[in-house]
Amino acid sequence: LLLIPIPLLGTTTLNPVTSVSGSLAPSGLVLGVYEKQSNNDGIHLTEAAAAFDRSISGKLSEMLSISGPPLKKGKSRIFYGLHQDFPSAVVVGLGKSGTGVCGKENWNNCKENIRAAVSAGCRQLQDLEVAHVEVDPCGDGQSAAEGAVLGLFEYDELKTKKKVRVTTQPYGSVDSAAWQKGVMYGDGQNLARQLMEAPANHITPTVFANTIEQKLSPFAHKVAVHKRPQSWIESEQMGAFLSVSKGSEEPPIFLELHYKGSLDSAQPPLVLVGKGITFDSGGISLKPSSGMDAMRADMGGAATVCSAIVTAAALKLPINIIGLAPLCENMPSGKANKPGDVVRAKNGKTIQIDNTDAEGRLILADALCYAHSFKPRAIINAATLTGTNTQAALMLSNKHRLINGFSLSFIITGDRVWRMPLFQHYTKQITESALADLNNIGKYSRSGGACTAAAFLREFVTADHWAHLDIAGVMTNKDEVPYLRKGMSGRPTRTLVDTHLHTKQDNLLE
Ligand code: BES
Ligand code: MG
Ligand code: ZN
After folding, report:
1. Which position among 115, 296, 349, 361 bears the catalytic label?
2. What region holds the Cytosol aminopeptidase domain (predicted)?
3. Count of alpha carbons within 13 Å of 71, Cβ hemisphere only?
């Protein structure tokens, strides 16, 4: 793959990174070891691990072979006192070397193995309260940095007892631009995780908007942030969005971000739209109480989209992006939508709301109409729209090129994607409504939920470059992704950033 070089980040250099010594606290060290290819193979260390081994006259490989069987993928062993600069060194299994993209898994094995191994090693040292860790880049500094940054994240802001804050740096020679990029990708996803994990009484629409504004403040010369209040939303005649927000005491905000990274300020922007329901109770179609707390993350679309824009700005990506996030709560109240209510969206279409829990498509409908006013190169929306645990984002799009560009990035980042269809069959389900032009639920209710939801959204899209990502299936992580702790995943933030590097700009227009 050819990466478009990232300007101003400096050219790729080989930086010999010296270890911390002297008055500073001692460092921990994370090193990788591959699985043996054959039985008569010796220990197969990474380049950095082999260099470390040489610096201590082969003591590492000696210890590895006497301490037990060869390390399996993701398994680790910790050694103390091998080197005076590194009182604790963790060696982690990377699996077989030279495995690449796996068609069955739809990801890059090498990258996933590095992320998992580095994350496991860093966490072990964090548990030992080692505050600074040097990390083997494992031949792919970006993936190693992502593993470290993502693996160490834990949302403990509201706990008295917090995990040790660990700083990391690459060990040995590394492509520093790749490492830096990995750190920024990881930080971006962690920002989305933080917003999603935080309780709904802490991250209200207002706080969400302020947080993103503050994160974008270092890039103010290239960024504009508009926090549109209710009066603006009313003047834009966003009747579908307003119908959801009026059920809550919390004021809605329509967040609008402009990132001008292209030297050509007239370059048509990419518009990213994210569902920003900061809490989804279901409304009058109330959800069951068990597990309802997870609905604090129903702003995952807005969180990943806005975090991707923060990351794009940090990376100085040479493109123009506009981010749109309708932010509100979906609550039951005397003012809330009632099943059977009819509202009018920004484009004039009327919608019968037969289920108030299908609110995401309502707020997105107006945001999608508004997105067209920027004459975008492409519109991409991300939303936790229909509940499933697919562990892959669902992608529905009216453009092959968009799908191809995205699919590549999903493989690289390990976020994974399934393509789903936009058959007329689904459109029929939502265009047959007793009282209005559209119904917000399909007449066969939940079957093919993601497809009917996408068919509904398509009623508000006239651009012919549109992709919808239903990310409900990747909202949470139990233990499926080994380098993310249990909790809200922040997926697919890295993919939303990465796709701009792998989608040739003019391809989008074909
Ligand atoms: N926010 C939910 C979808 C969701 C559920 C995301 C679980 C993540 C985990 C959405 O607003 C919703 O309630 N969708 C309904 C739609 C149905 C009423 C047509 C669903 O999927 O059940
Ligand atoms: Mg809902
Ligand atoms: Zn929802």
Report:
1. 361
2. 355-362
3. 27
pLDDT at 9 over 60: no
pLDDT over threshold 90, residue 312 = yes
Question: Where does 54-160 show beta strands of DSSP type E?
Answer: 76-83, 86-93, 101-102, 107-108, 132-135
Radius of gyration, CA atoms only, the chain: 24
Burial of 197 (0-12, 13-18, 19+ CB in 10 A): buried
Distances (CA, A) of 398 to 383, 385, 395, 455, 466: 17, 18, 10, 11, 6
- Asked if 156 contacts 162 with a C-beta cutoff of 8 angstroms, the reply is yes
List pLDDT tens digits, range 336-359.
999 999 999 999 999 999 999 999
Cβ(357) – ligand 1 distance below 6 Å: yes
If you average pLDDT over residues 477-491, what whole number do you get?
A: 97
Q: Whose CA is nearest to atom 21 of ligand 1?
A: 386
> Residue 504 has what pLDDT?
53
Q: Is 439 a pocket residue for ligand 1 (Cβ < 6 Å)?
A: no
Known catalytic membership, residue 504: no
Could you give the domains of the chain? Answer: 3-171 (3.40.220.10), 189-509 (3.40.630.10)
Q: What is the pLDDT of residues 442-473, one digit of tens each?
A: 987 656 699 999 999 999 999 999 999 999 99
Report how far residue 383's alpha carbon sits from residue 147's, in angstroms, rounded to the nearest whole number: 25
Measured between alpha carbons, how far is 284 from 331 in angstroms, rounded to an integer? 7
Percent over 90 (pLDDT), the chain: 84
Annotated active-site residue 361? The verdict is: yes
> Which ligand 1 atom is nearest residue 386's CA?
21
